[in-house]
Amino acid sequence: MENHYTLSDSEFEKKFSSCQFDPVHFTHEAHLRLAYIHIDKYGLLQAERNIQSQLKKFVAFAGAKHKYNTTLTVAAIKAVHHFMCQSDTDSFTDFITKFPRLKNNFRELIAFHYSLDIYNSEKAKKEYLNPDFLPF
C-alpha cells in the first residue's frame, strides 16, 4: 500500500498544500488521489486551479520545477473527473479499484486524447493544450 493511504483525505490534502508531504511519496497514484479529493470537495474548475497552484508550489519545494507540466496536470484532473462521473463509489480506494486504467495505463489513456507527446513538449509544460483527438 502506498504511503499516502496512511493519511485521511483531509490530512493528505493539508499536508500536500502546505508542502509537508514527503515528495518521495508523491506518486502517480497520489496525484490521482489529490485530483479525486479536490474534484469531490471543490468541483472540477476549482480543483484545476487548486491543484495547479499547489503542485507548482510543491515541485518548487521539492526542487523539481522542471517536472511540472500544465497540460499533463489538467489532463489528469479531467480524466479523473470523467471517470468520477461514471462512478458510484464514495472513496478513492474503491474508485481506483473500479478504474485501474487511470493508474496502470495512464499514458495509453492520454494517447486517446493527444497526438503530440505532451510529456516532453515545452509548450505543454507551460500552458494547457486542449486535446486534438478526443476531448475530455
Largest sheet descriptor: none
Helix residue percentage: 55-70%
Radius of gyration: 14 Å
- Element pattern in H and E: HHHHHHHH
Strand content: under 5%
* Cα-to-Cα separation, first versus last residue: 30 Å
What's the overall geometry?
Answer: globular
Question: Number of helical segments?
Answer: 8
Rounded average pLDDT: 95
Q: Regions with pLDDT < 50 over 5+ consecutive residues?
A: none
Q: List how many beta strands DSSP finds.
A: 0
Counting helices, strands and paired strands, the structural category is mainly alpha
Q: What labels would you give this structure?
A:
mainly alpha, 0% strand, 136 residues
Topology of this protein?
Elements: H1 9-17, H2 28-42, H3 44-61, H4 70-85, H5 92-98, H6 101-104, H7 106-111, H8 122-126
Helix pairs in contact: 2-3, 2-4, 3-4
Kindly describe this structure.
This protein has 136 residues and is mainly α. It has helices spanning 9-17, 28-42, 44-61, 70-85, 92-98, 101-104, 106-111, 122-126. The N and C termini lie far apart (30 Å). The mean pLDDT is 95.
